[in-house]
User: What shape does this take?
Amino acid sequence: MAGLKPINFGIIGLGAGTMNMLPELSANPNAKIVAAADTRKDALDRFTKDFAGQAYSNPEDLCKDPNVEVVYVMTPDEYHAEHTILAAEHGKQVILDKPMGLTLDQCDAIIESTERNGTRVLVGHSQSLDLVNLKIAEIANSGELGNVTMIHTMFYSDWIYRPRAREELVQERGGSIVRRQGPIQVDIVRMIGGGLVKSVRANTNCVDPQRPIDGSFNAFLDFENGSSATVIYDGYGHFNSAELTYGYTLQGFQMDPELHVNSRKKIEGFGSLEEEELFKDSTRYGGSLNRSINQRVSEERRHAFFGFTIVSCEKGDIRQTPTGLIIYGDYGNTEVPIPAGAGYNRRYCAIEVDEMCRALRESTPVRIHDANWGKATQEVVLGIIASSEQRKEIFMEHQVAYNGQGVS
Assistant: This one.
């Protein structure tokens, strides 16, 4: 797509998560950031300075902007459905940060609105779309190693002790590790396992009364094709699964043990939730920390690890490496290198952005993580929560198959 006119993007929500997305979106030759909406004047002032784009104090005005072609929704989870539907009603395409919605009814409302208005929704970002995970899914679904028998993915981090705003510590408002991190792991195993989850049996845990949201979970997913997956996330900051992934972390850099160990101490150092919220505000776009939106380029960066994943097939096992993957076969191991661009920097949202731009230019649907896929993933996430609450197996009704097309 080199040499083509960039697609115009507008961003709803300039929070801390947007700080992770902006460096890559702003450097993507397929995209031009032309507008943003937020309630914070400091964020809008910085946006005007950084991008010379239109700054709006509410999402509706951004969605009315005729110059905006794609809306990137980066607001808190409880507003995802509202803002996606608003964009669709104004004829805009949407890249929607996971999760798709808090409920399946919200997912259905998004699907109805986009179908009625002839627009597209791509649910991301999701590290399932890292090039290594796409390649693992391709091999697993191709049958070259026989049928997939088992998938295991687990992530141990300090997620629960990262600074939070008040609403992030309320379970019903979309807080909890299951709702916010679970979609990524579910995407990964659904892609590898063919997409069609039959049932879920799970347990969630809340072990710190000062952080009254689910901070860990384990789940067993049974697939229609007979394969199964175990999905584990523990965010309580003791063990770090980077120890199992060559020392590399979610960012593709070597783990800094001090940062991991000190996360709990940092939270305990705040005098109150208000003080913690003030610090969280400082990390947002336009916040007092004035975080850079320039991409971090380093020769030490490698493929990102969303924890440890291993896939068992009839004729071999597959796992990720910093530079690709290894197939452990019947008679030896095969390393498969997977280039990821200079410095391995196209990680956070590049594939989602490129795919949406391709679909717009070619007037075709998006091929990855569309609205129906997003709903199916959220059904599994909600099934994990329901299974833990009800202490029983929860059966799925809205699953869709993985199309296996990947991206180019």
About this structure: The chain has two domains: 7-127+346-375, 128-343+376-395. The chain has a mean pLDDT of 92. Residues 7-127+346-375 form a domain with the Rossmann fold fold (CATH 3.40.50.720).
